[in-house]
Specification:
7 helices; alpha/beta; two-stranded antiparallel ribbon
């Protein structure tokens, strides 16, 4: 089995090291990750300059681009054949609800999915994360399950793991994405050169976080597994829009 690992925190992040160690004895592992932290890069591709691929002393490859660049470059130009799976993470911090739109961790897995490869995005729901070993073991468990019994079609799974010891996890549940309140406003401040600068505000609090959501699962020490899709069509509004245009 061949697995491509990526993340959005950079090739030096502790999460991807834990992930590589956890999967090393069940698959041939190739790590291709950004050269620096690209959190929040979403599904962006770098089209205005060429990309470079370099190998670090630990054997991990790094790219001067986004998480999506990393997976796209690896699958379409670096590897000899398609990997059997793409695993992205372990992200430091949750990727639940609306976070998935912005997440570079989810984006790397999404690129694998778009290329026809079963893909997992793994996030540890704590900042700074303490129990990366728990998330790594969850990733290993899911990979073992997919090895033993593959699903009938490529899947994109968003996995959020509570930041607790593995023994304290209460199980794994299939969830839907919850929703957050509106994000906090940007923070205006002055630079050392007396220039006005802005920091993006914090994410909003969970709004739709009831039973069945990813927020509810993690809050109750359950691993949340959410199947994602790429089709953004708002199908329920198609009749409304057709009627509006026909007036």
């Amino acid at each position: 089995m061949r697995i491509l690992l990526c993340n959005d925190d950079g090739y030096f992040a502790p999460g991807i090291e834990h992930l590589a160690r956890a999967l090393a004895d069940v698959a041939e592992i190739t790590v291709v990750a950004p050269e620096r932290d690209r959190s929040g890069a979403s599904n962006s591709l770098t089209l205005d300059r060429p990309l470079s691929l370099k190998r670090a002393a630990n054997g991990f490859y790094h790219v001067n681009g986004t998480p999506t660049d990393c997976v796209h470059l690896a699958v379409t130009g670096m590897l000899d054949g398609l990997p059997d799976m793409v695993v992205s993470g372990i992200n430091m911090g949750a990727n639940m609800g609306d976070d998935t739109i912005y997440s570079g961790t989810v984006a790397a897995a999404t690129e694998g999915f778009l290329l026809g490869i079963p893909s997992l995005a793994i996030s540890l729901c704590g900042t700074p994360g303490e129990y990366f070993a728990s998330a790594a073991q969850v990733a290993r468990d899911l990979v073992d399950m997919l090895r033993r019994q593959a699903l009938r079609e490529p899947v994109l799974l968003n996995v959020n793991v509570p930041d607790v010891p593995y023994a304290q996890l209460r199980g794994t549940v299939v969830t839907r994405l919850g929703k957050r309140h509106k994000a906090e406003p940007v923070v205006r401040t002055l630079s050392p050169r007396n220039e006005t600068v802005f920091w993006v505000g914090a994410a909003g609090a969970a709004a739709d976080a009831g039973e069945g959501t990813d927020f509810h699962a993690v809050r109750n020490h359950l691993v949340s597994v959410t199947p994602l899709q790429v089709d953004l069509t708002h199908n329920a509004q198609l009749p409304l829009l057709r009627g509006w245009l026909a007036r």
